Amino acid sequence: MASADTATKSENAPAHHRKRIVVAMTGATGAILGIKVLIALRKLNIETHLVMSKWAEATIKYETDYHASNVKALADHVHNINDMAAPIASGSFKADGMIIVPCSMKTLAAVHSGFCDDLISRTADVMLKERRRLVLVARETPLSDIHLRNMLEVSRAGAVIFPPVPAYYIRAASVEELVDQSVGRMLDLFDLDTGEFERWEGWQKP
Question: Residue 130 maps to which CATH number?
Answer without folding.
Answer: 3.40.50.1950
